[in-house]
Specification:
Elements lengths: L7 E10 L2 E11 L4 E5 L6 H8 L7 E6 L2 E3 L4 H6 L2 E4 L11 H5 L6 E2 L2 E2 L1 H15 L14 H14 L4 E5 L7 H16 L3 E5 L3 H7 L2 E6 L2 E7 L5 H9 L17 E10 L3 E9 L3 E5 L6 H8 L7 E6 L2 E3 L4 H6 L2 E4 L3 H5 L6 H6 L3 H4 E2 L2 E2 L1 H15 L15 H15 L3 E5 L7 H16 L3 E5 L3 H7 L2 E6 L2 E6 L7 H8 L2
Parallel strand pairs: 3-10, 3-11, 6-9, 9-10, 15-22, 15-23, 18-21, 21-22
Antiparallel strand pairs: 1-2, 1-4, 4-5, 7-8, 11-12, 13-14, 13-16, 16-17, 19-20, 23-24
Helix pairs in contact: 4-5, 14-15
């Protein structure tokens, strides 16, 4: 690999949008059989650069060369024909179609004008056999797991004879076992001479899967290193432009009275007699493997689902929460696991999203007071350092970290006393993570009670005052002495 020329070269790539210099002369090189980690904060230019490579954007300046030959992509179809496949974080699959149909969508195998279904099935089966996995070819994609969606995207890339595969946050929604399977597949792709560009905010994965790292900051390339020549701390420093001495800011917890009591909460088959308490000023982490019942428990507390049995108390008061509106009135807020699907209305402005749970005090005579709404949003925009050019910016156009801050802003303005954070830092960069951690500490200092659901064990150990571990719908372990806890101890409870 070291002696061969680059499979891919991107030189001096420039891309501007109205008021934004997204890419400022970025260089990137990828060799055959290499995994290149592309790192950077949200808004650093990673997604824009990959959209240029994938033909979704046209660069304003610069050159793309494959095998030394300059090429120009006018559409994603051009990129696919050149052997480039981009697997985005939000999969581009049609839920109603089968795995087999999705693999060949847009490039169907035909005979005499008819789709050759038998041939497509044969090739799809061969692709999954090559990947060493089993996926039901005839089941609609909506009935398959997230990990299987990932495999379908990889199979589709291989079906198009991709030589360059971009994976954007591929492990974000996968279990530990599924991540290991993904890494095994990547190693196989490397062995076949395929170049992989791997984008992730999970820095612990980078040293395991990547050969080199390229780091972007503010639309420019700020460094390239072999993985053996760079530490985690140095990666973070290059990404954010400063030294972060403490990835998880410490605090001294001042614990008050009981703010929330959950007793024998049940909704079969996902939640089975769950009980716990959270006190004022306390951050309680709820962790476990995906599918253990964590999010389902949060939805019951927030009134989004109704329990079969059990009770919820706010302080000493028993509350019946028949819907989220009643939970909000009871002082409970939920930052959902999927901010794009459940936390925001992406087509609406950031100001309108901020106002949604606050219409009761931002309206008069049934009409929203837009100026008042904007004034309050701007106050929170400054407090949370939300990077947005104006209040009318649509939520879909923000980076993941800034989207999460908009969700935070709307709940903080509501002044709820119990905050449920479901995967609060998923898909956001290390700098934005630190800001959210510091905010959580500030909220705890003000007496807010927080339930933090997280799959990232370093985050759980770094932020929690107490840890609850779930398995198969039940709490199987509680760790009070977090300072002495280990990831292995948590995993023992998680697979109990």
């Amino acid at each position: 690999m070291a002696e061969s020329g680059p499979l891919l070269e991107m030189r001096g790539i420039v891309k501007t949008f109205p008021g934004v210099n997204a890419l400022r002369g970025v260089d990137l090189a990828l060799r055959a059989g290499e995994v290149l980690a592309l790192l950077g904060e949200n808004g650093a230019g990673k997604s824009t650069l990959m959209k240029v490579l994938g033909g979704a954007h046209r660069a304003d300046a610069g050159a793309i060369r494959i095998d030394g030959h300059e090429t120009h992509f006018h559409s994603p179809h051009d990129a696919r024909r050149a052997g480039v496949a981009v697997i985005y974080q939000e999969f581009n699959l049609v839920p109603a179609l089968t795995a087999c149909e999705n693999i060949f969508l847009g490039q169907e195998i035909s005979r005499a004008g008819f789709v050759a279904q038998a041939e497509e099935r044969r090739r799809a089966a061969a692709l999954f056999e090559r990947l060493g996995v089993n996926v039901d070819l005839d089941k609609p994609v909506r009935r398959l797991t997230t990990a299987q969606h990932q495999l379908i995207e990889i199979a589709r890339a291989l079906a198009f004879d991709a030589r360059i595969i971009v994976m954007d946050e591929p492990s974000a929604a996968l279990t530990t076992h599924e991540v290991e399977r993904l890494f095994a597949i990547i190693r196989d792709l490397k062995a076949r001479g395929i170049g992989v560009i791997y984008i992730s905010h999970r820095l612990d994965e980078i040293s395991r899967v990547a050969d080199r790292v390229t780091i972007l900051r503010d639309g420019a390339n700020v460094g390239e290193r072999a993985i053996a020549e760079i530490t985690r701390a140095r990666m973070i420093e290059m990404m954010v432009g400063r030294e972060l001495k403490d990835e998880f800011p410490r605090r001294t917890a001042t614990i008050g009275g009981v703010a929330l009591t959950v007793r024998e909460l049940r909704r079969l088959p996902a939640v089975k007699d769950v009980s716990f308490k959270i006190r004022q000023g306390e951050i309680v982490a709820l962790t476990g493997l995906i599918g253990s019942g964590r999010t389902e428990t949060a939805r019951l507390i927030f009134g989004a689902d109704q329990p079969d049995a059990g009770e919820i108390r706010r302080g000493r008061k028993l509350v019946k929460l028949r819907n989220p509106a009643e939970a909000i009135r009871a002082g409970i807020a939920l930052l959902t696991e999927d901010r794009k699907l459940q936390g925001l209305v992406l087509g609406h402005s950031v100001r309108e999203n901020f106002g949604l749970p606050n219409l009761s005090w931002l309206s008069r005579a049934g009409f929203v007071q837009a100026q008042r709404e904007g004034r309050h949003f701007r106050r929170w925009r400054e407090t949370l350092r939300i990077k947005v050019p104006h209040d009318g910016q649509r939520a879909r156009n923000l980076s993941g970290g800034n989207q999460q801050k908009v969700v935070l802003a709307k709940w903080l303005a509501r002044n709820c006393d119990v905050l449920i954070f479901d995967e609060p830092t998923r898909g956001i960069d290390v700098g934005a993570k630190l800001e959210i951690y510091e905010l959580m500490n500030q909220l705890a200092a003000k007496g807010k009670a927080m339930l933090m659901i997280s799959s990232e064990l370093p985050e759980v150990l770094g932020m929690a005052d107490r840890i609850l571990v779930m398995h198969d719908g039940r709490i199987t372990g509680e760790i009070g002495n977090v300072a002495q806890a280990t990831q292995e101890q948590i995993m023992e409870f998680a697979v109990a």
